[in-house]
Amino acid sequence: RIVRSMSLLQRVTSNETLSPERGRSPTSSHSPRDRKLSFSPIPGSWVAPAVEENVQAIGAFEVPKSKRILQVFTAVIYCLFAAGIVFGYAALKPVLIREHVYRNLCTKEELEEGVRTCYDQEIHLNLMFTVAAVGTNVAALPIGAILDTLGPRVCGIIGSFLLAIGAVLFAFASEAKFDAYIPGYLFLALGGPFVFISSFQLSNTFPKHSGLILALLTGAFDSSSAVFLVYRMIYQWSNGSFWPKKFFLAYLVVPLLILIVQIFLMPKASYKTVGELVKQVEDADTNYDDQVDEQTALLQDERRQGRQSVVSEITDLLGSKSGGKQIQQEERKNAISGVWGAMHGKTVTQQILSPWFLLITLFTMIQMTRINFFVATIRPQYEYLLSSYEKAVEINTFFDVALPLGGILSIPFIGLVLDNTSTFFVLSALVTIATAIGVLGCLPYTWAAYANISLFVLYRPFYYTAVSDYSAKVFGFRTFGTVYGLIICLAGLFNFSQSGLDALLHKVFNGDPLPVNLILLGGALVVGIALCVFVGVKAYRFERLRLEHEAETASEVIMPGAESPERL
């Protein structure tokens, strides 16, 4: 998911590069764009024309505290109901099957056999999710450009309209003369990232608590997959009377409320980042009037008092005028990474053609496909492995509950791991856990199924966050929108191979998930090992170069008493 995908974005979304790049002075950047992370796929050297004036960033101190609190609270609520609902597909799928969605595609022989789902029905249902997953990831590219040029309010409004279109299409899909399920689900998928990503900038409403705000937004994204779980429970409780049309028409309340709060509550422009606030303080400290005659003395004094008031308010937000604490924290994390700055300062083309990009992209493509394939086929997989439909339903229900909970529970641990361990360690952990999940997914035991799901729901947010963290540390923030967006976009497009995997599962292997799982496991293991070896070797070389540089630049220190050896 993104996007959690999104979630992309999950740790670096509101922070800016406070630490200088290798060989670059920390004071050399004077552009606001250099000081903050852009979601746009457009290279950082590009500066938007006059339209950028219309969405000039605002300082949090300019907005009442109560309003900022309300903005954050509201964003968390609507992200909870809209950000990533399509990833609750595993909970919605049984409802669609019971409503005979795509049942008309079954052959006469399959209907006579009384199969729960026929081949074409299964393929089309999973294709609906595949298209939505691809759309979610590909959408990261245009969303970044829209957010950077038109601002978060426009992004949120677009998202509300997309959600509304998706809900209407899905509500009337059973009556439509065309297949409205796939485009309906796609629009729901596209609307989520628009409202979610545009909310990231709200972490700058309270810079000292930006981590907590991001955690709340991320948790809301993870929990949003439970929307369809709640609906399925209501559907079963009502014995099918609360059918999809009623639910999706009722769901229109969500995009309507998002539209209202975007117009009347949410900011038109993004809040200023820490770097921009620090620069504003610096500008205020150095600003002075050339004329100090009697006629301008009063005006100058008023301006000075105004600047001091602004500096005081910014200091209250940051905790200091220079943001020194944040800078020290970033420098410490960069040093721990071992590969921070590896491709900083390189052109986008150089970065994309490097092994740093190619290996992480291949790994992401395979892992994202594995994740989405498992989400789409969890019930038929365990129905075959456990030889029991009832046990498969139990496993599916456990997964539906564990998926949002796993995302929430993993948030604090993900931050601790990424901030306090090297990138090589993080990648090694990703490969190791992915291998364990792959092995557990091949075992025909109930305990293995529960262990597999427990690991999976914790691994999924860790994986997505680690990829975005890797991209920020290796490639830098100035090209983050382009490079990370391309990684997710390519991985999303590769998800179309899921239809081929479905065909292999049902046609070639007669429902046996073992061969497909082994293929995905083997591919991820080979690419993962190659990635870890490459990063490990590079980190070792960087450390040696650092030590050699320190030795060469170290000043000569005379030992006590060395100047007068006769005293020894």
Walk me through what this model shows.
With 568 residues, the protein is mostly helical. The chain has three domains: 63-271, MFS general substrate transporter like domains (Growth Hormone, Chain: A); 274-285 and 302-323, no CATH class; 338-548, Growth Hormone, Chain: A (Up-down Bundle). The protein is 68% helix and 1% strand. Helix 19 runs antiparallel to helix 23. Residues 1-54 have low confidence and may be disordered. Residues 13-36 are annotated as: Disordered. It is a multi-pass membrane protein. GO terms for molecular function: transmembrane transporter activity.
Which features characterize this protein?
Growth Hormone, Chain: A, 568 residues, transmembrane helix, single chain, transmembrane transporter activity, globular, mainly alpha, disordered N terminus
Summarize, please.
This protein is mostly helical. It has helices at residues 32-35, 65-82, 89-98, 108-113, 119-138, 140-150, 152-171, 181-197, 210-223, 227-237, 244-251, 253-264, 274-286, 294-318, 324-337, 348-352, 355-385, 389-420, 423-440, 446-475, 480-494, 497-508, 514-553, and one strand at residues 2-4. It contains 23 helices and 1 strand.
Span of the ends, CA to CA:
69 Å
Oligomerization state of this entry? single chain
The general outline is globular
CATH class wording of the largest domain: Mainly Alpha
CATH topology name of the largest domain: Growth Hormone, Chain: A
Specify the number of helices: 23
Give the percentage of residues in beta strands: under 5%
Please give the CATH architecture of the largest domain.
Up-down Bundle
Residue stretches low in confidence (pLDDT < 50, at least 5 long) are 1-54
Question: What letter string, H or E per element, gives the SSE order?
Answer: EHHHHHHHHHHHHHHHHHHHHHHH
**Radius of gyration (Å):** 26 Å
Number of domains: 3
> Which structural class fits the helix and strand makeup?
mainly alpha
Q: Mean pLDDT, rounded to whole units? A: 81
Reported for the largest beta sheet, the result is: none
Helix content: 55-70%
- Please provide the count of β strands: 1
Main location: membrane
Family: Belongs to the SLC43A transporter (TC 2.A.1.44) family.
Transmembrane segments: 72-92, 127-147, 154-174, 180-200, 212-235, 247-265, 356-378, 398-417, 475-496, 516-537
Subcellular location: Membrane
